[in-house]
């Protein structure tokens, strides 16, 4: 059965690789990027390489939450349903530490933007068939400071990245519990994969980007993961695993969701 699939942050890295792999299967693919020229180039490349004309895209800078809202409006105009959402867009190193709203850019791109986008397109996901949300977490996880999330505490790049990834994972658990008709799976696609983000942030890699592509493809499509909602897949170990202990605290999860909704009002 052909699916309607949206992959954020898919103009390079594992997002682009999984978009191509899914396009080759004949699915209706929507890629996303923040640079218009690059987005149009990638759409053309995927169409040609997959021999699939059902490839389109959406433009938005995920460090700008208003742009995310506008992208969601465009999605509603263009799509009648959404079967799979892969929240892949992420940032580690950046020329600026904070957004124009004074928020840590890693929290915004890695957590607040996918949270907001998913909330806005939820009606389309509920119209989909066996809909799945795949959220890109990381092996790097750290206890979330609500002060840092709100932009009232300065933290390092690594702290911002690690905290934002645990926040995303905690929200995934919450979403899975509260949206029982959807499958929500947070995933560490693999540490230090051969992507531009890893090259810029760490300067070396340990594994091929194909490792991340393949697990995203499987989590999105394989029947065996249809009942895995709320479980965290760790692709370093190749199995479902536990998250940072701080992320399993129910009170912390509810406090995070409450603060997130306050910030997004």
What can be said about this structure in brief?
This protein has helices at residues 13-24, 36-50, 65-78, 105-127, 146-149, 157-178, 196-202, 209-221, 250-263, and strands at 4-7, 28-33, 55-59, 84-87, 132-136, 183-188, 232-234, 239-241.
Please tell me the CATH architecture by its name.
3-Layer(aba) Sandwich
Task: Please give the count of helices.
Answer: 9
CATH superfamily: NAD(P)-binding Rossmann-like Domain
Order of helices and strands: EHEHEHEHEHHEHHEEH
Mean pLDDT: 95
Q: What shape does the CA trace take?
A: globular
With strands numbered from the N-terminus, the spatial order across the biggest sheet is 3-2-1-4-5-6-7-8
Structure characterization notes:
The relative contact order is 0.14. The mean pLDDT is 95. The protein has helices at 13-24, 36-50, 65-78, 105-127, 146-149, 157-178, 196-202, 209-221, 250-263, and strands spanning 4-7, 28-33, 55-59, 84-87, 132-136, 183-188, 232-234, 239-241. Helix 3 runs parallel beside helix 4. It has an eight-stranded mixed beta sheet with strand order 3-2-1-4-5-6-7-8, sandwiched between helices. It has one domain (4-263): Rossmann fold (3-Layer(aba) Sandwich), CATH 3.40.50. Helices cover 47% and strands 14% of the residues. Strand 2 (28-33), helix 2 and strand 3 (55-59) form a beta-alpha-beta unit. By secondary structure, the chain is an alpha/beta fold. It has nine helices and eight strands.
């Amino acid at each position: 059965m052909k699916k309607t699939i949206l992959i954020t942050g898919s103009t390079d890295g594992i997002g682009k690789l999984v978009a191509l792999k899914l396009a080759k299967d004949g699915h209706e693919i929507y890629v996303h990027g923040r640079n218009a020229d690059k987005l149009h180039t990638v759409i053309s490349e995927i169409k040609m390489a997959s021999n699939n004309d059902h490839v389109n895209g959406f433009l938005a800078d995920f460090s700008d939450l208003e742009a995310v809202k506008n992208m969601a409006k465009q999605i509603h105009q263009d799509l009648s349903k959404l079967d799979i959402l892969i929240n892949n867009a992420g940032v580690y190193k950046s020329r600026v530490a904070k957004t124009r709203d004074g928020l840590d850019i890693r929290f915004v791109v890695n957590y607040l933007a996918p949270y907001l986008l998913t909330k806005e397109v939820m009606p389309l996901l509920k119209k989909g068939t066996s809909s799945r949300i795949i959220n890109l977490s990381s092996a790097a996880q750290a206890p979330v400071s609500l002060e840092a999330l709100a932009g009232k505490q300065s933290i390092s790049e690594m702290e911002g990245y690690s905290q934002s990834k645990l926040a995303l994972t905690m929200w995934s658990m919450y979403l899975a519990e509260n949206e029982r008709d959807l499958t929500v799976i947070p995933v560490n696609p693999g540490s230090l994969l051969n992507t531009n983000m890893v090259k810029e942030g760490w300067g070396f890699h340990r594994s091929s980007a194909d490792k991340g592509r393949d697990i995203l493809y499987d989590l999105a499509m394989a029947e065996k993961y249809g009942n895995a909602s709320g479980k965290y897949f760790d692709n370093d170990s190749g199995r479902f695993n536990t998250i940072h202990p701080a992320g399993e605290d129910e009170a912390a999860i509810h406090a995070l969701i409450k603060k997130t909704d306050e910030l997004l009002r």
